[in-house]
């Protein structure tokens, strides 16, 4: 009989064709990474009806006002079993799923099968030592022949170490810590998870290199990707160059103007960069259409935790190395876990990368910071979790910025990587069950935080990350002395230096950049 279980508490799959009985038992013993005991009482949801977008490019949804009772209790045990099966077909509670044309379903199922086979390959021995998930995936990805070449067992782990530059430091920001101390000299201790030191300058390479390996394993010769800030584009182009894959990056012309340095880097790395009218959301739509036209030869490499299953789960798993390292490094530095973990939130890849490891640790606060743009009530923002409603976009159900007719509202943020009208289904779920907290920061606060970190620590964060640093001013006042705060510094900000300089000049009448 076919069995199903949840992987990291979220992804159900059928595996009777892939696993031996011995492999199954070892697999689920190894993958003991489920959600915490969570009680959700008297929550309400709405019945969703589909409305076809006027442009007919994508299917969006708008909720009707028909309240229904949610489950009184949502209980997920450490054993990977649930009182009710809520996680199947890539569902995170009421979020996620596969909302795509029939032509894409079989391709996504193949991708899911390939991804799941990695976890229960009968030839793979789950040893007693605790390797990260990415090491667990190595055998499947590279212990195979491609074009007559044989790759050894741990090449993904070695690539992450020797090519990407893992593990990245957990850096104690002494001067930033001192800056936020109160008049009594007390305050939290602030640590930075330095993903900006990865090859390519961002966390995006973690997922890009792993998915490029999967693409090669599946025999695909051409990789397609969409990018906004360009960090995923650079990571994908670098991975494809290393693995000798053709690379096509689609990028909105608006984003190209704002992130021209990353566009140049992608071209240097051998990628074909195609401009698309609009921004990241438009580039994503076009990339998916391009992929549909060449399913047999191309691979769509998603860099965000959005889209149809299994894309959000794959991205989160490949990025979860961030949180795993953070737990290990925190134990080494102070003998415990972080008290608070902070990350910026666009679509969710960097936030989930560090959050997921601590979801079961209910004593660890998880705080996501969205972009409020020119103001949360101005209509010019990217605060999807703060202001969005549930709908379907780019193949999955999640919170979206949409109008009363279910049409997508254009987002705004000074950080191009946060410029997306949706958010991943898993973060939507974490909001619903109140496991994570979400707040907003306006453009000016992010610009000030960028400048502050440059002057105090000699680190220039990406403007996306600067939103997370900006929230520290409000957060630190509320925390007890000695609280351990970890901020995911997920990207480097040299790409934003000209934008910051220009905005700071515009804020001064004499054109002189202010010093604190």
Shape: globular
Total DSSP E strands: 20
What is the name of the CATH class of the domain at 170-200 and 316-506?
A: Alpha Beta
The major pleated sheet works out as: 6 strands, mixed
Q: How much of the polypeptide forms β-strand, as a percent range?
A: 15-25%
Order of strands across the widest beta sheet? 9-10-20-15-16-19
Q: Residue ranges: pLDDT <50 for 5 or more in a row? A: 1-88, 121-154
* Rounded mean pLDDT score: 79
**Structural class, judged by helices and strands?**
alpha/beta
Radius of gyration, CA atoms, in whole angstroms: 22 Å
- Measure the end-to-end span: 66 Å
Report the CATH topology name of the domain at 170-200 and 316-506: Rossmann fold
Describe this entry's structure for a reader.
The structure is a single chain. The protein has 19 helices and 20 strands. With 516 residues, it is α/β, with parallel strands linked by helices. It has a domain at 170-200 and 316-506: Rossmann fold (3-Layer(aba) Sandwich). A 6-stranded mixed β-sheet has the order 9-10-20-15-16-19, sandwiched between helices. It has a 4-stranded parallel β-sheet with strand order 13-12-11-14, with helices on both faces. The protein has a two-stranded antiparallel ribbon with strand order 1-2. Strand 7 and strand 8 form a beta hairpin. Helix 4 (155-164) runs antiparallel to helix 6, helix 7 packs parallel to helix 9 and helix 12 crosses helix 13 (349-355). 51% of the residues are buried. The model is unreliable at 1-88 and 121-154 (pLDDT under 50). Pathway: Amino-acid biosynthesis; L-tryptophan biosynthesis; L-tryptophan from chorismate: step 5/5.
């Amino acid at each position: 009989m076919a069995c199903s279980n949840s992987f990291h508490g979220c992804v159900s799959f059928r595996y009777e064709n892939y696993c031996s009985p011995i492999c199954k038992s070892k697999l689920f013993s190894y993958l003991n990474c489920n959600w915490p005991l969570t009680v959700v009482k008297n929550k309400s949801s709405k019945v969703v009806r589909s409305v076809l977008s006027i442009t007919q490019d994508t299917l969006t949804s708008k909720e009707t006002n028909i309240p229904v009772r949610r489950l009184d209790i949502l209980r997920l045990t450490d054993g990977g079993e649930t009182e009710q099966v809520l996680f199947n077909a890539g569902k995170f509670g009421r979020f996620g799923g596969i909302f795509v044309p029939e032509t894409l379903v079989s391709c996504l199922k193949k991708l899911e099968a390939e991804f799941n086979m990695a976890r229960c390959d009968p030839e793979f021995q789950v040893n007693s030592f605790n390797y990260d998930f990415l090491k667990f995936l190595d055998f499947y990805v590279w212990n195979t022949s491609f074009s007559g070449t044989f790759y050894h067992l741990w090449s993904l782990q070695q690539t992450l170490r020797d090519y990407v530059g893992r593990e990245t430091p957990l850096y104690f920001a002494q001067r930033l810590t001192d800056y936020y101390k109160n008049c009594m000299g007390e305050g939290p201790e602030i640590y930075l998870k330095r993903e900006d030191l990865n090859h390519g300058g961002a966390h995006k390479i973690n997922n890009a290199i792993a998915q490029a390996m999967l693409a090669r394993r599946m025999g695909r010769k051409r990789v397609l990707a969409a990018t906004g800030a360009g960090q995923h584009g650079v990571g994908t182009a670098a991975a494809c160059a290393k693995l000798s894959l053709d690379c096509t990056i689609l990028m909105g012309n608006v984003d190209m103007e704002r992130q021209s340095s990353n566009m140049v880097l992608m071209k240097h790395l051998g990628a074909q960069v195609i401009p698309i009218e609009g921004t990241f959301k438009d580039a994503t739509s076009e990339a998916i259409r391009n992929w549909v036209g060449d399913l047999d030869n191309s691979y769509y490499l998603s860099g965000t935790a959005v889209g149809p299953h299994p894309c959000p789960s794959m991205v989160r798993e490949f990025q979860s190395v961030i949180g795993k390292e953070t737990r290990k490094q925190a134990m080494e530095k102070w003998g415990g876990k972080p008290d608070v973990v902070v990350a910026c939130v666009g679509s969710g890849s960097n936030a989930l990368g560090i959050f997921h490891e601590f979801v079961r640790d209910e004593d660890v606060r998880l705080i996501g910071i969205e972009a409020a743009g020119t103001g949360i009530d101005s209509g010019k923002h990217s605060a999807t979790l703060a202001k969005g409603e549930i709908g379907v976009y780019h193949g999955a159900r999640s919170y979206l910025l949409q109008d009363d007719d279910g049409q997508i509202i254009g987002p705004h943020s000074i950080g191009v990587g946060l410029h997306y009208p949706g958010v991943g289904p898993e973060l939507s779920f974490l909001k619903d069950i109140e496991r994570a907290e979400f707040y907003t920061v306006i453009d000016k606060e992010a610009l000030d935080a960028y400048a502050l970190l440059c002057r105090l620590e000699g680190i220039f964060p990406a403007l996306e990350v600067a939103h997370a640093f900006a929230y520290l001013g409000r957060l630190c006042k509320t925390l007890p002395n000695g609280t351990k705060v970890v901020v995911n510094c997920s990207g480097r900000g040299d790409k934003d230096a000209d934008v910051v300089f220009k905005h700071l000049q515009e804020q001064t009448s004499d054109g002189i950049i202010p010093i604190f």
